[in-house]
C-alpha cells in the first residue's frame, strides 16, 4: 500500500466499493467489541442502496492510496454519520485523515462542534482525537460524542475571505 493518502468526493459509481469496505471493516474491526454474531448483524444492516443515498444526499469523502479506495467518511451538517477503513489499512492514518477532512468541512460551514455516534470499537479512537462522551449508549445506537472545534479562520493567504472583493 502506498503511504500517500488522497481524498476526493465520492461518486455514485463508488457505492458498491464503499459498501464492501464498510462490510469488511465492521466484520474485521468490530468483532472484539460486538462478537461475531453482533458484527455480522451490523455489517449486514445496510446495503449498497444506503451508501448510494449517502453519496447523493450528504458529503462522502473517499480515501485512496493512489491505487484503490481504502476508506470513506460521511458527513451531514455537523455530524459524522460513518467512518470506515479497509481492515488492511487500519492503523495507517487513513481514519485520522478522513476525520480531519470532516472536521475541516464542518468548521468551514460555520459549525463549532462535530457530533457523532461512535461504535464501541471506535470510542478510544475518537477520544484520542479530542471527542468527549455525551451520554451512555442506548440499545440501538452508538456512543454519542462531540468535539468542540476551533474557530475557522476567515483569512487565507492574508486575504480576509469574509470581506467583499472590490475590483476596479
Strand order of the largest sheet: 1-2-3-4-5-7-6
CATH superfamily of the domain at 6-111: Gcn5-related N-acetyltransferase (GNAT)
SSE succession: EHHHEEEHEHEEEE
CATH architecture of the domain at 6-111: 3-Layer(aba) Sandwich
CATH class category of the domain at 6-111: Alpha Beta
Low-confidence stretches: 154-168
The major β-sheet equals: 7 strands, mixed
Query: Judging from the principal axes of the Cα atoms, what is the shape?
Result: globular
Helix content: 25-40%
Q: Could you say which structural class the secondary elements and strand pairing correspond to?
A: alpha+beta
What is the count of β-strands? 9
- Strand % is 25-35%
Overall average residue pLDDT: 83
CA-based gyration radius: 17 Å
The span between the termini is 51 Å
Please, how many helices?
5
